[in-house]
Amino acid sequence: MKEQAEKALQEMLDISTDIHRAMLFLGEEVLASSFPESLHPAMLVKAGELASLGAQRAADMGSSPLTQLVVESGGGTVFLVREAQDTGMVVLATCKKDSRIGLVFYDMKTCIRDAQEAPETEVVADAPVAADPEGEVAG
Q1: In 3-state terms, what secondary structure has residue 25?
Q2: Which of 39, 113, 138, 139 has a Cα-to-Cα distance from 15 of 20 to 30 A?
Q3: CB 90 within 8 A of CB 99
Q4: What percent of the chain has pLDDT over 70?
Q5: Average pLDDT over residues 118-139
Q6: Mean pLDDT, rounded, for 11-23
Q7: pLDDT digits over 68-118, tens only?
Q8: Which of 3-7, 20-24, 32-36, 52-56 has the lowest mean pLDDT?
């Protein structure tokens, strides 16, 4: 799963010109990240705080559970996308100021989906080989 998560995160970073850095995690386990490893514990805490605040606000409004959140500041934007269930994957990303919000959310949701997909394995069927005892070639 970790290899697939790393591949999905890298593809998202390669495609999205708005996303500066990102981290994909499941619970307390960082599956893939472009942040320095020394920041991972703090990023997990901050992501949890953002998700909690967003969930509380959604509950106060009588809204559906939080699945995406954007926080804009003068220096840039922080995005959080998570699966609907509390135990699902989460992507936290920092982006440049004036990022295309809809496109960033789409890229982040695609990253989660791609990280969950099992890698395709090439299946090679053993094709029966017809034996010609006399070595003749049919023509």
Answers
A1: strand
A2: 39
A3: no
A4: 83
A5: 50
A6: 95
A7: 999 998 889 999 999 877 678 999 999 998 899 999 999 999 999 999 986
A8: 52-56
Q: What crossing angle do the helices spanning 101-116 and 2-15 adopt, rounded to 10°?
A: 160
Domain that holds residue 18: 2-116
CA distances (Å), origin 18, targets 27, 80, 88, 98:
26, 14, 24, 9
DSSP type of residue 48: H
> Which of 44, 50, 42, 46 minimizes the C-alpha distance to 66?
50
Q: Is residue 34 part of a domain?
A: yes
Does any domain span residue 135?
no
CATH number for the domain that contains residue 24: 3.30.450.30
pLDDT in the model for residue 70: 93
- Cβ-count burial 88-121 (b if 16+ within 10 Å, e if not): ebbbbbbbeeebeeeebbebbbbbbebbeeeeee
Full 3-state SS string of 93-131: EEECCCCCHHHHHHHHHHHHHHHHCCCCCCCCCCCCCCC
